[in-house]
Amino acid sequence: MFSASHRLHSDAMSDAENAVTYGKCNNPYGHGHNYSVEVTVSGQVDEATGMVCNLVDLDGFIHREILQRFDLENLNTKAEFAEAVPTTENLCTAIYDILQRGFTYAHLEKVRIEETMMNSFEYGGENEFVIE
Amino acid sequence: MVYLTRKAEFAASHYYHNPDLSPEENQRIFGKCNNPNGHGHNYTLEVTVKGEVDPRSGFVVDLKQLKEVLNREVLDAMDHRFLNKEVPEFSTRIPTTENLAIAIWRRLVSKLDKAKLHRVRVYETPDLFVDFYGEA
C-alpha cells in the first residue's frame, strides 16, 4: 500500500476539455489516494526451497522500486508521468513495466491496484489471467 | 488491455418460487427462501470492463459515466425493491443470484460504448457470489 497525490490534467486538452474529462480530479491542487497494490507472479515450486520465489526478494523489490518511488509523493512529478496522465490505468501499466523489467525471480502475471474501495484496475500485459 | 472493476451496493428483497412446481416441491428445493413474504440482502455488485487505455485521457472508460450507467440501469431499478414484484425480468424468472447476474449483464452490455463488458459479479452475502461472463 502507498499513499500519493495526483492531478488528472492533459496538456493536449483545453482547460474546458480537461474539466469535462476529469471533473473533480482536475483540481489544480491535486488530491490523494491510498493505493493498494497486488502483484501476482507464477512459476514452478522449487524443490529445494518449496517456493515459487523468495517472498523476501519480492517484498524487497516492491519496497525499493515501487513504494520508495511513489509513497508519499506527487505522481505528477515522477518520471513515469512526465508524458502520461497519472490515471490508475497508467499507474497500473507503469508498475507492471517496472516489475517486468527488474524482477527476474518469477514470471510476472499481473498487477492489480485498488484506488478506492469502489474502483480497481488490473493489467497483465500479454498474459491471459483471471480477473479477481 | 486494462481491466477496470467498479463496485456498487444495493439492498433488495426476494423469494424463490417456481409456479410449475407443487408447494411441497418448492419448499423442498428452496427451503426458507420460499417464504412468499420475502427476505432481503445487501448485494454488492462488481462490474468489470476491459479496453485499451486512451492515450489522450489515460482512461479505459470514464468512471463517472460508468457510475451513471450503473446507477441508472441497475441501482434505480433494483435498490430497495422487491425483485419478484418490481423488476420485470423476475416476473417469469426466479430472482436467484445467478439470474440476477444475468439480468444485470443484459441491462449493461448494450449501454457501454468505449469499454467492453467483461464480467458481472454479484455478492448475495460476503460468503456467496456469482460470476457471469456473458452468453457463451
Q: What distinguishing features does this structure have?
A:
heterodimer; A: about 130 residues; alpha+beta; 5-stranded mixed sheet; elongated; B: about 140 residues; 5 strands; about 30% helix
Count every helix of chain A, treating DSSP H or I runs of 4 or more residues as helices.
Answer: 3
Q: Report the structural category of chain B.
A: alpha+beta
**Major beta sheet, strand line-up of chain B:** 3-1-2-4-5
Please summarize the sheet with the most strands of chain B: 5 strands, mixed
User: Any low-confidence stretches of chain A, pLDDT <50, length ≥5?
Assistant: none
Distance from N terminus to C terminus of chain B (CA atoms, Å) equals 21 Å
Oligomer: heterodimer
Structural class of chain A: alpha+beta
Order of helices and strands of chain A: EHEHEHEE
Work out the strand percent of chain A. 15-25%
Radius of gyration of chain B: 17 Å
Strand order of the largest sheet of chain A: 3-1-2-4-5
Which range does the strand content of chain B fall in?
25-35%
- The beta-strand count of chain B equals 5
Overall pLDDT metric of chain A? 95
Q: Choose one word for the global shape of chain B.
A: elongated
Task: Report the principal-axis shape of chain A.
Answer: elongated
Total DSSP helices of chain B: 4
Largest sheet of chain A: 5 strands, mixed
Number of strands of chain A: 5
